[in-house]
Structure prediction request, 171 residues.
Amino acid sequence: MRRILFFVLPVVFIGGLAFLTACDRSPKKGEARALSGGALNFTLPSVDGSIVRLSDYRGKVILVDFWATWCPPCREMIPVLSEIHRKYSSRGVVVLGISLDNDGLQALGPFVVEHRIPYKILLGTDAVREAFGGISSIPTLFMVDRNGKLVRKMIGYHSVEELEGQLKNYL
Prediction:
Protein backbone atom coordinates (compact mmCIF):
# COMPACT_ATOMS: atom_id res chain seq x y z
CA MET A 1 0.00 0.00 0.00
CA ARG A 2 2.85 2.37 0.84
CA ARG A 3 4.46 1.71 -2.54
CA ILE A 4 1.25 2.64 -4.33
CA LEU A 5 0.96 5.86 -2.33
CA PHE A 6 4.64 6.58 -2.98
CA PHE A 7 3.96 6.56 -6.74
CA VAL A 8 0.40 7.91 -6.80
CA LEU A 9 0.84 10.99 -4.59
CA PRO A 10 3.58 12.62 -6.71
CA VAL A 11 1.58 11.96 -9.88
CA VAL A 12 -1.54 13.53 -8.36
CA PHE A 13 0.50 16.49 -7.08
CA ILE A 14 2.21 17.12 -10.42
CA GLY A 15 -1.07 16.65 -12.29
CA GLY A 16 -2.75 19.16 -9.98
CA LEU A 17 -0.01 21.71 -10.56
CA ALA A 18 -0.28 21.22 -14.32
CA PHE A 19 -4.05 21.70 -14.13
CA LEU A 20 -3.76 24.90 -12.09
CA THR A 21 -1.14 26.28 -14.48
CA ALA A 22 -3.34 25.53 -17.49
CA CYS A 23 -6.31 27.22 -15.80
CA ASP A 24 -4.39 30.39 -14.94
CA ARG A 25 -6.48 33.26 -16.27
CA SER A 26 -4.35 36.15 -15.05
CA PRO A 27 -4.85 39.41 -16.93
CA LYS A 28 -2.27 40.08 -19.61
CA LYS A 29 -0.49 43.38 -19.25
CA GLY A 30 -1.79 46.15 -21.49
CA GLU A 31 -5.11 44.61 -22.53
CA ALA A 32 -7.16 46.66 -20.10
CA ARG A 33 -6.21 49.60 -17.94
CA ALA A 34 -7.72 52.49 -16.07
CA LEU A 35 -7.80 55.90 -17.70
CA SER A 36 -7.32 59.08 -15.69
CA GLY A 37 -10.05 59.58 -13.11
CA GLY A 38 -10.69 55.84 -12.66
CA ALA A 39 -12.31 55.32 -16.05
CA LEU A 40 -11.65 52.08 -17.90
CA ASN A 41 -10.16 51.47 -21.29
CA PHE A 42 -9.65 48.35 -23.36
CA THR A 43 -8.71 47.40 -26.90
CA LEU A 44 -10.49 44.38 -28.40
CA PRO A 45 -11.04 42.89 -31.86
CA SER A 46 -14.52 43.16 -33.34
CA VAL A 47 -16.38 40.59 -35.43
CA ASP A 48 -16.35 43.08 -38.32
CA GLY A 49 -12.53 43.07 -38.34
CA SER A 50 -12.03 46.44 -36.67
CA ILE A 51 -10.19 47.14 -33.44
CA VAL A 52 -12.33 48.82 -30.78
CA ARG A 53 -11.08 50.96 -27.93
CA LEU A 54 -13.49 51.95 -25.20
CA SER A 55 -11.82 55.38 -25.15
CA ASP A 56 -12.98 55.90 -28.78
CA TYR A 57 -16.49 56.39 -27.35
CA ARG A 58 -15.57 58.99 -24.73
CA GLY A 59 -18.38 61.50 -24.47
CA LYS A 60 -21.03 58.83 -25.06
CA VAL A 61 -23.01 56.62 -22.71
CA ILE A 62 -21.84 53.05 -23.25
CA LEU A 63 -23.60 49.80 -22.43
CA VAL A 64 -21.05 46.99 -22.21
CA ASP A 65 -22.70 43.57 -22.30
CA PHE A 66 -20.69 40.49 -21.31
CA TRP A 67 -22.43 37.52 -22.90
CA ALA A 68 -21.99 34.20 -24.78
CA THR A 69 -23.81 32.53 -27.66
CA TRP A 70 -24.62 29.43 -25.58
CA CYS A 71 -26.31 31.43 -22.78
CA PRO A 72 -30.15 31.56 -23.09
CA PRO A 73 -30.65 34.79 -21.05
CA CYS A 74 -27.84 36.40 -23.07
CA ARG A 75 -29.63 35.49 -26.29
CA GLU A 76 -32.84 36.99 -24.88
CA MET A 77 -30.97 40.26 -24.30
CA ILE A 78 -29.99 40.60 -27.98
CA PRO A 79 -33.37 42.03 -29.12
CA VAL A 80 -33.44 44.31 -26.05
CA LEU A 81 -29.97 45.71 -26.73
CA SER A 82 -30.77 45.97 -30.45
CA GLU A 83 -33.81 48.08 -29.60
CA ILE A 84 -31.76 50.30 -27.27
CA HIS A 85 -29.18 50.67 -30.06
CA ARG A 86 -31.87 51.68 -32.58
CA LYS A 87 -33.64 54.10 -30.24
CA TYR A 88 -30.69 55.79 -28.58
CA SER A 89 -27.61 55.68 -30.83
CA SER A 90 -28.58 59.07 -32.26
CA ARG A 91 -28.59 60.41 -28.68
CA GLY A 92 -25.04 59.28 -27.92
CA VAL A 93 -25.63 55.76 -26.58
CA VAL A 94 -23.30 52.97 -27.72
CA VAL A 95 -23.89 49.26 -27.17
CA LEU A 96 -20.86 46.96 -27.14
CA GLY A 97 -21.29 43.20 -26.75
CA ILE A 98 -18.23 41.43 -25.35
CA SER A 99 -18.44 37.74 -26.13
CA LEU A 100 -16.98 35.27 -23.65
CA ASP A 101 -17.23 32.41 -26.16
CA ASN A 102 -14.10 30.32 -26.57
CA ASP A 103 -14.63 29.69 -30.29
CA GLY A 104 -13.21 33.02 -31.46
CA LEU A 105 -14.30 35.65 -33.92
CA GLN A 106 -14.83 33.25 -36.82
CA ALA A 107 -17.54 31.37 -34.94
CA LEU A 108 -19.17 34.61 -33.78
CA GLY A 109 -19.49 36.08 -37.29
CA PRO A 110 -22.23 33.72 -38.49
CA PHE A 111 -24.08 34.11 -35.16
CA VAL A 112 -24.06 37.91 -35.48
CA VAL A 113 -25.35 37.72 -39.06
CA GLU A 114 -28.02 35.13 -38.23
CA HIS A 115 -29.35 37.15 -35.29
CA ARG A 116 -28.96 40.50 -37.09
CA ILE A 117 -27.07 42.12 -34.24
CA PRO A 118 -26.70 45.82 -35.16
CA TYR A 119 -24.19 46.79 -32.47
CA LYS A 120 -20.47 45.97 -32.20
CA ILE A 121 -19.59 42.47 -30.99
CA LEU A 122 -16.10 42.10 -29.52
CA LEU A 123 -14.09 39.08 -28.45
CA GLY A 124 -13.45 39.34 -24.72
CA THR A 125 -10.27 38.55 -22.84
CA ASP A 126 -9.60 37.56 -19.26
CA ALA A 127 -7.89 40.90 -18.65
CA VAL A 128 -11.00 42.83 -19.71
CA ARG A 129 -13.21 40.61 -17.53
CA GLU A 130 -10.94 41.36 -14.57
CA ALA A 131 -10.82 45.08 -15.36
CA PHE A 132 -14.60 45.13 -14.94
CA GLY A 133 -14.26 43.51 -11.53
CA GLY A 134 -14.59 39.92 -12.69
CA ILE A 135 -17.64 38.45 -14.37
CA SER A 136 -19.24 35.71 -12.26
CA SER A 137 -22.40 35.26 -14.32
CA ILE A 138 -23.75 36.30 -17.70
CA PRO A 139 -25.30 38.33 -19.02
CA THR A 140 -23.67 41.12 -17.06
CA LEU A 141 -24.27 44.62 -18.35
CA PHE A 142 -22.25 47.69 -17.37
CA MET A 143 -23.16 51.29 -17.96
CA VAL A 144 -20.28 53.68 -18.57
CA ASP A 145 -21.02 57.40 -18.36
CA ARG A 146 -19.87 60.11 -20.77
CA ASN A 147 -16.64 60.54 -18.77
CA GLY A 148 -15.74 56.86 -19.13
CA LYS A 149 -16.57 55.86 -15.55
CA LEU A 150 -18.51 52.74 -14.60
CA VAL A 151 -21.76 53.89 -13.07
CA ARG A 152 -23.94 50.78 -13.00
CA LYS A 153 -23.65 46.98 -13.07
CA MET A 154 -26.70 44.88 -13.94
CA ILE A 155 -26.73 41.08 -13.85
CA GLY A 156 -29.23 38.94 -15.74
CA TYR A 157 -32.00 39.80 -18.16
CA HIS A 158 -33.37 43.37 -18.26
CA SER A 159 -36.21 44.72 -20.36
CA VAL A 160 -36.06 47.70 -22.70
CA GLU A 161 -38.08 49.69 -20.17
CA GLU A 162 -35.66 48.89 -17.34
CA LEU A 163 -32.66 49.94 -19.41
CA GLU A 164 -34.40 53.11 -20.60
CA GLY A 165 -35.09 54.01 -16.97
CA GLN A 166 -31.39 53.66 -16.17
CA LEU A 167 -30.26 55.52 -19.31
CA LYS A 168 -32.37 58.59 -18.50
CA ASN A 169 -30.00 59.37 -15.63
CA TYR A 170 -27.02 59.70 -18.00
CA LEU A 171 -28.34 61.09 -21.29
Q: What stands out?
A: Strands lie at 32-34, 40-45, 51-53, 61-67, 93-99, 120-123, 140-144, 150-155. Confidence is low (pLDDT under 50) at residues 4-37. The longest strand covers residues 61-67. The radius of gyration is 19 Å.
